[in-house]
Write a structure and sequence with these properties.
alpha+beta; two-stranded antiparallel sheet; 24% strand; elongated; binds zinc ion
Length: 82
């Protein structure tokens, strides 16, 4: 039986996520998000959708990226319309 890498719960229905070639086990999606989801560089919100990336920085939305002075980013969700 695997243990959740976030909360340590031993659970028979854990699932695995491979991220940056490291394998993690979790007992629920909430733990996976808490453990692995990046944080917006501007408002510290957890980014659980696509987010927007500027090299090494990730933002929850283009608005947050703009607040940090990044002006050439668009939300992924808008790309198909532009
Ligand atoms: Zn857990
Ligand atoms: Zn943000």
């Amino acid at each position: 039986m695997d243990r959740c890498d976030n909360c340590g719960n031993a659970y028979e229905k854990t699932f695995k996520i491979v991220m940056n070639s490291k394998e993690y086990s979790f007992d629920c999606f909430e733990c996976a998000i808490n453990h692995l989801a990046p944080h917006c560089q501007s408002c510290d919100t957890r980014v659980i959708g696509h987010g927007v990336e500027d090299g090494l920085s990730i933002y929850c939305c283009a608005g947050c990226a703009r607040m940090q002075g990044v002006t050439d980013l668009k939300d992924h969700s808008n790309e198909s319309y532009s």
